Amino acid sequence: MKELVKGLGIEQKVIFGGFVTNEELNVFYKNAISLVMPTFMGPTNMPLLEAQALGCPVICTDFSWP
Question: What is the predicted pLDDT for the residue at 16?
Answer without folding.
Answer: 87
